[in-house]
Amino acid sequence: MTTPDDAAFDARYVPADPYYAGWAPAPPRPRTDGLAIAALVTALVGLGLVAVGLGVAALVRIRRRGTAGRGLAIAGVVIGALEMVVAIALVVTVVLTWQQTRPLAGDVDHEQTVHARQLVAGTCLRELPPDGTVDEVTAVPCAQAHEAEVVSVYDFDAAAVWPGQAQADARVARSCELSDDEQAAGARIVTWAPTQQGWSRGDRSGLCLVVTG
Question: Is residue 149 in a domain?
Answer without folding.
Answer: yes
